[in-house]
Design goal:
Order of helices and strands: HHHHHH
Shape: rod-shaped
Radius of gyration: 67 Å
Helix content: 40-55%
Oligomer: single chain
Length: 254
C-alpha cells in the first residue's frame, strides 16, 4: 500500500508498516474465551406474516388522525351503502321481485299517513272549538254574576244617581220615597211660611184696619197643613232625648 507516514504516494517500507501496526495495536489483555454452544438461528418473518404491512400501517394511521383532515375510507367499503343513506337496501329488499306489491304497500302507507294527518287536524280543531265555546260560556256566566253582584251592591247606579231627589231639568220630584219625603218637607215649608205671614199680619195690625184707606185689611190665608199619611215614605223615628242630662232639652252643653 501507499505510505501514509511520509505523505508521499509511494509504497512504504516493510519495516515502517510493521512499526505502524505495532504502535496502533491495542495492548494485549487476557479476555475469557466464551464457550462455544449450539447456535439457534431464527428465520425472520415477512410483514404479511406479522399481520401489518406498510400499507396497512399507513391506512390505520390515516383513519386515526384528527385535526380537520379528510377521513380515510376503506376501499373495500366503497360499494357498501350506509344504513342511513338513500341507496341502502338490505338483503330482503334487494332480492324482493314483487315490485307492484311494494308500490302498493308504499301507496297504502302514504294514504294512511295522510288520513292520520287529517284525523289529527279534525281532533285538534274539534278540541279548539270546544274550548272556545267553553270559554264563551264561562265568560257569559262571569258577566251575569258580575251584573247580579253590581245590582245587589248598587255600585254602578250610584255613580249616575243624583244628590237631590228631583229632576234638575224638569224640577219634578223623584218617584221614590226620597222624592215623597222632599215634597212633604217642601209642603211643610210653605205651610209654615203661610203661618208666619199670617202671624206677622196679625201682630202688626191687631185692629184689622188698613191705616192708609181706613178700610178693613184683608186677612192672610194659611195653607192647609199637609198630613204625613198622604205621602208615600216611611218617617224616621224621633231621636230620644235624655231628660236627665243637663241641657238635653234646652240644647245647652254644660
Amino acid at each position: 500500500g501507499l505510505c501514509a507516514l511520509s505523505g508521499w504516494s509511494r509504497p512504504c517500507a516493510p519495516a515502517a508498516v510493521t512499526t505502524l501496526r505495532t504502535r496502533m495495536a491495542p495492548p494485549a489483555r487476557n479476555y475469557p474465551v466464551p464457550e462455544i454452544t449450539e447456535v439457534r438461528n431464527v428465520v425472520p418473518r415477512q410483514r404479511d406474516e406479522r399481520g401489518f404491512t406498510r400499507d396497512d400501517i399507513e391506512k390505520e394511521r390515516l383513519k386515526q388522525r384528527t385535526g380537520g383532515f379528510v377521513r380515510y375510507e376503506d376501499p373495500q367499503d366503497v360499494l357498501i351503502q350506509p344504513p342511513d343513506s338513500l341507496g341502502y337496501a338490505d338483503d330482503a329488499d334487494r332480492f324482493n321481485r314483487d315490485v307492484t306489491g311494494m308500490e302498493k304497500t308504499a301507496r297504502e302507507a302514504a294514504f294512511a299517513r295522510k288520513e292520520l294527518m287529517f284525523y289529527n287536524r279534525r281532533v285538534q280543531r274539534s278540541e279548539r272549538e270546544e274550548s272556545r265555546w267553553q270559554n264563551a260560556e264561562q265568560e257569559y256566566v262571569d258577566d251575569e254574576n258580575a251584573l247580579a253582584r253590581m245590582r245587589d251592591e248598587g255600585l254602578k247606579w250610584k255613580r249616575n244617581h243624583g244628590s237631590v231627589p228631583y229632576n234638575v231639568l224638569s224640577l219634578q220630584y223623584a218617584d221614590n220615597p226620597e222624592g215623597e219625603k222632599l215634597r212633604y218637607e217642601d209642603d211643610m215649608l210653605r205651610y209654615r211660611a203661610s203661618l208666619r205671614a199670617a202671624n206677622l199680619h196679625r201682630e202688626q195690625n191687631r185692629n184689622g184696619i188698613d191705616p192708609i184707606n181706613g178700610q178693613l185689611a184683608p186677612l192672610v190665608e194659611t195653607l192647609e197643613q199637609p198630613q204625613q199619611s198622604n205621602y208615600n215614605f216611611t218617617p224616621e223615628e224621633p231621636r230620644k232625648i235624655d231628660a236627665f242630662r243637663p241641657g238635653a232639652v234646652s240644647g245647652k252643653n254644660y
